[in-house]
Amino acid sequence: MLYFLRRTGFFVATLWAAVTLNFLIPRLQPGDPAQALLSRLQGNTQAVNPVQLAAIRKMLGTRDGNLLSQYWDYLGAVVHGQFGVSYSYYPYSVTSMIATALPWTLILVGVTQIASFAIGTLLGAWAAYRRNSRVDSVITLGSTFVGTLPFFWIALVLIFVFAITLNWFPDGGGYGGGSSPSWTWLFFSDAFQHSVLPALALLITGPVGWIIGMRNNMVQTLGEDYARLARAKGLPRRRIALTYGARIAILPNVTGFAIALGGLLGGTVLVETIFNYPGLGRLLLEAVSNKDYPLMQALFLFTTIGVLIANFLADVTYGFLDPRVRRAEAP
Fold first, then answer.
1. In Å, what is the CA distance from 281 to each residue of 44, 69, 74, 270, 278?
2. C-beta separation of 279 from 272 below 8 A
3. CA atoms within 13 A on the CB side of 64
4. 275 near 198, Cβ under 8 Å?
5. Which of 71, 165, 199, 217 is placed for a possible disulfide with 249 were both Cys, Cβ 3.0 to 4.6 Å?
């Protein structure tokens, strides 16, 4: 019980620190969002009118007062789930913009993350079970080679081969220009075709880390004393690999998988930018480029909370899977 109470305390303290940093970091960036919006509307060649600048600041709802008063207002807004109006997509609210982009990221990145974890963990365990064999060499060397390839290069190759040369799939976007989001089979079919290449790009490089990590952890685990004792007792090799090897070796992967799932709320900026995919990653890039403080803060906060919750759940899972963790913090 002490272990779980400490993990809860760390979670609350880290969440407060993350919320505070999320408030401070955007305000440390140089530039004025109102001035950036005015320059984008009238062009960089014209001089900025102070009256128009003040009007735009009032329209955007830019908060006045010192930093401390803004911090308290920010905490109150976070508690009530009010993140203001997006500077880039005025007059749409930050919540509506995130709600529009969130399903695209959850479906694309969430499905590929789960598939990558399952494929990588199984292949890594199989390589460790057949270590020093041809299967182990093929899996290890193949994943190492794929891991050296730049992700953007793989994405561009997929676009060139399957979108431009063969014309099998669209080269970008979430759906075609002739359709609009709706609960129809035609739209889902169109959206699926647009998601094939981004998902394939993620699935090519996604399992590499899980394969290497699971293989190395399991090889090390099978060399421990308890695994040797199990072999000395005559237990079947497969049972030793599953019960004594994979169960312990998968623990570091559980932590990494939890962090990956928590981080998917931030989207995948690179893949969504290359494929022009309408997810949270591309939304974050546009918010940073336009100095959209409310949208930046909300996206950073969602990502941070997702990672913290995932870490907390991973710690709790550790406590159930490995009793040694609980005993280490016992009085």
1. 27, 31, 23, 8, 8
2. yes
3. 4
4. yes
5. 217
